[in-house]
Specification:
It contains 13 helices and no strands. The chain is mainly α and about 325 residues long.
Length: about 325
Amino acid sequence: MSISGTGILRRGLALGIGISPAWSAAAILVYASSWIFRTWRLKSLTGPSGKTFRAFDLFRYHISGYALNSFLPAKLGDAATVVYLKMAGVNLGRAVAIIFQTRILDLLAIVLLSTPAVILVLGRSAPGWIVTTFIFCALIVAAPLAMVAFDRKRYTARIFEKLGKKSGNRMFRLAAEKAGDTYQGYHEIVSDRLLLAGSILLSLAAWGVEGSAGFAVSRALGAQVSFLPVLLAVMIGNIGKAAPATPGSVGIYEGIFAAVLVLFAVPFEVAIAVAILDHLLKKLFNITVGGLATLRIGISLDQIREMVDDQSR
């Protein structure tokens, strides 16, 4: 190991030893509160059926999916959440549309919260990769919303329906039908302006609170970093997590998080320590609470097979 590498390791260990238990507990509590807004958002997106769900049940479904995403590849935890909602009585197409929309809303909130930080703090010195990332994310968010806006009469759903009826292949027909159902569900969600506005506000609140948890983590390590740089690091780090290259995006999140803080003249060893602790505390919360929720739900392979059989008829 090089001398510089040894210095970084020693500084990181020193920071780790000096972690403030009070600030760490505060960070966990602040992050836990973000789930109030996520659960509230999920309840609103379930539509009229949401009135029949207890908020605690929706919380269990949601955080169980997050916990499973920490271990399963390709965001299969989201698929599990779809199964939970379907078993609870939500139409399968609507359930898929709900989970898809939560991811779109997350990305929208991240972009909206990050933009002021980039403009006010980095300004014209913002690196090209950050600007490019924001533009790309904005396009991803805009695409499905624009599609619904220009397709008020739901011609796309009719196309899926016609494809299903004309196809002689049973699997293709089934896929077309489910795609049509999902589009119908998504169209209903996005077309409701009051619902859309409310879900955006709840998403902003959830991610604002998560950024605040990251700031509490920096204080736990005694790092002298202002709020906006940490908020930006949390936001961009989570964009990187969208690519499931590693289980739970471990390593990806930390690398991006630290790279952003370094832009604000934060020493690398401090930046990486904050990134690791931030990701660790949030993962531990999701895995612990989400793991217990998964056990409580008690979903079995037989139940999943039964759901698939019902949808195949």
